[in-house]
Design brief:
With 211 residues, the protein is an alpha+beta fold. The chain is 39% helix and 17% strand.
Length: 211
């Protein structure tokens, strides 16, 4: 096993619970024997991934007279996994995953971050386009660019005349003639004047062409 065990931010000085230390040592011993490895074999394998541990230290830890450090347990677990032997211990259940898993998670986090940034940029672009005046309008009633007609009548019972910011000003009566002035605000309302001289913005979906 050639991969170096990453020890940073791993609480190297943290120790397993003293209450279960004897059980931990016994489980390590059983797993080591299942892998047909001596204590010296374990120590040599740990040295290859830059984890220092002597045979006497391992022996005392297996016997329960010394507490395993979490970093040591993690390293031993990786050594045993290379021999297809699992080491299941509560003390390392919340530790860092093996190096290969950490690398996968790191790359996945980068991909998620890049995807999120791209989605955010697209959303911002859409907002900019909207704020720059691409209104949502009812194109079925589009004005005279096609028909050549700017004259309409109010088809609703009453229709609100609004200012350029969308605030209501007054109601216009049914069948009143209006002239579309060729401008729309961000809400999609049309700028109009009425035959009696009123000026403002209305919802174009309630207008019907006169010509």
């Amino acid at each position: 096993m050639t991969e170096r065990l990453e020890m940073d931010n791993f609480h190297e000085n943290g120790t397993a619970s003293a209450i279960v230390n004897g059980q931990t040592g016994e489980e390590v011993r059983r797993a080591r024997e299942a892998a047909k490895m001596t204590q010296a074999d374990i120590v040599r394998a740990l040295a290859r991934i830059d984890v220092e541990m002597s045979v006497s230290t391992l022996s005392r830890s297996e016997s329960g007279t010394r507490e395993f450090k979490k970093a040591e347990l993690q390293a031993i677990r990786e050594v045993l996994e290379a021999e297809n032997v699992a080491l299941h211990l509560a003390e390392i259940s919340d530790s860092k995953p093996p190096h290969r898993v950490r690398e996968f998670l790191r790359r996945r986090a980068i991909m998620i971050g890049v995807s999120g940034a791209l989605i955010g940029a697209l959303g911002l672009l859409g907002l900019i386009v909207t704020l720059n005046g691409v209104p949502s309008v009812n194109h079925s009633d589009a004005p005279s660019a096609v028909t050549g007609c700017n004259h309409y009548r109010i088809a609703a019972r009453d229709l609100w005349l609004r200012d350029q910011y969308g605030e209501t000003v007054e109601q216009l009566p049914h069948d009143l003639d209006v002239t579309y002035l060729g401008k729309q605000n961000r809400a999609g309302h049309w700028e109009i004047t009425t035959t009696d001289g009123r000026h403002g913005w209305v919802d174009s979906s309630f207008l019907k062409p006169r010509c």
